[in-house]
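Chapter review. Work through the record for Large ribosomal subunit protein bL19c before attempting the end-of-chapter questions.
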Amino acid sequence: MKFYPLVKSIEQLQLKLDLPLITIGDTVRVGVSIQEGKKERVQPYEGTVIAQHKAGLSTTITVRRIFQGVGVERILLLHSPSVQNIQVLRQAKVRKAKLYYLRDRVGKGTRLKS
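Structure tokens for Large ribosomal subunit protein bL19c:
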């Protein structure tokens, strides 16, 4: 692959450098830009990080929240232009790399230790 260094150099230019350190179990608030007609606004999405996939420019996090009694998960590209800002609100101590077991829990069972 003779084009690999060229692709890698272009990806380096598009990386966001001001991202906070995000770990599994963190409660985060992500500002996602939403386009409604001709207007664009930033919609906050708050939840617990249950998974992370580190792959340079394609790094993603899976954020889970409970909305009106239904679990909603969203996979967000960290370096995407639609992700405006990320705030880490709370950090939790976890012992697993993926917190998929939270999908089966409801209410107080979803709480993580700080």
